Amino acid sequence: MRFNGFSRRHFAKIAAWSALAISSKSAEGVANAAVQNPKGSLAAFPRGFLWGTATSAYQIEGAIDEDGRGISIWDRFVHLNGKIIDQSTADVANDHYHRYKEDVQLIKALGAKAYRFSIAWPRVFPEGAGTPNPKGLDFYHRLVDELLANGIEPFATLYHWDLPQALQDRYGGWRSRETSKAFADYAGYVAERISDRVKSIFTINECGRLVQAGFGMGIDAPGLNLPQKEINQVRHHVALGHGLAVQAVRAHARRGTRVGPAENIEVCIPAIETPANVRAAEIATRELNAGYLTAILEGKYTDAFLAYAGANAPTYEPEDLKAIGSPIDFVGLNVYQPNQYVTAGENGHPFTLLPFPATYPRMDSSWLRIGPEAIYWAPRHVAKLWNVKSIYITENGTSAADKPTEDGKVYDIDRIMFLRNYLGQLHRATLEGVPVKGYFLWSLMDNFEWSDGYEKRFGLYHVDFKTQRRTPKLSASFYREVIKQNAVM
Ligand code: GCO
Questions:
Q1: How far, in Å, is the centroid of ligand 1 from the Cα of 431?
Q2: Is 395's C-beta closer than 6 angstroms to any atom of ligand 1?
Q3: Rounded mean pLDDT, 234-255
Q4: Domains of the chain
Q5: Which in 14, 219, 326, 456 has the greatest CB count within 10 A?
């Protein structure tokens, strides 16, 4: 039934609101009581918990041919027809290379005390190796000094997918172990020069995605569709690159510099939290990450991984796994979605992976299924399986439509819903003593979302890419309150 454009359901809602308005005194009283009794209504995080935001060089910097920067595989890839959904490029992106001071103020306005950014390898070594660009690190020195001057701790990621094209041309990029070695040389060069101020370094962002999307599905640079054996070999070279980079940081950085990966862990969640299903989820998490995170934390490939890979298993030198398993100081976890729901196995299999129904709820990106408990189980599994003592959530956040209303504001209550529920589950983990030390919200501001171009917005700040105007969304106010209270309301 519709009446003057209102449906029955709408009327019912209005009626409910009016009833509430009538009893607003009592409602107000309840609300105030909650605020007056903050302990009861707030999920407080441990004292000293680090709140931050994250971005990556290629997605925000622009200035792709400035100050000696070489080209990256993404510069090449975005100019290939049909690869980017809106035919856009990151040639300018957020123009962060020139606007970094303004953007540091955006971080400061949130009250965030940490910022995870990445360093563009092609700015430092335009040819990937050999002669460094004398201006290569200058931008990052400026950025780090600006962050520190504003009380914000810098966390640097050495590789967030922007491989120098010269290495792709010369060696086939990560298809060759020469790239693993070049990455270690780059890592040592950078760590030696920034570790007087940057105390925490992530090696490689999301091996899982860069390998599968770049070399399997072809939707990310370098856009290849390789057979499984070659995909496994690429993943081995990325893992080797991580390990050799850890060794290079240990050799060249200031004493006390911390280093570790930032990985999009395949997180397996018990569909029902029974002990048998939880154990199955732990086993599944170890096996589904066997090609990278498990190899880093155990210094070997699991028997099941090698047996399952069979003839497609990577070939490697004996010392490779020792390098891959180099001791690390923390594990960064990028957590967005419930990768797998699991129940206990049957017929001798250790776990059962459950299919997702077509109606399973998602956010604005088709891959982004909603499953807040993923951010509880991911760090809990890593701590339990490998006795990791320091974990950061290096990315969590969501895309949303983010259409400004007539008043120019962005009421992204969908993003707030997402964040509140995920942070509530992260709080559960910290309550149970899971050693999560900090959280980096993805992302500070809307940016170039890889093959989705500018069509998927993940920022706390809305960016008008025509004017470069940054506008805080409602979620920026939400996150500022979370940081101020060190709690989720
Ligand atoms: C990733 C990347 C980010 C993405 C973000 C949203 O995790 O895929 O680190 O660069 O932009 O995750 O997809």
A1: 28
A2: yes
A3: 98
A4: 9-485 (3.20.20.80)
A5: 456
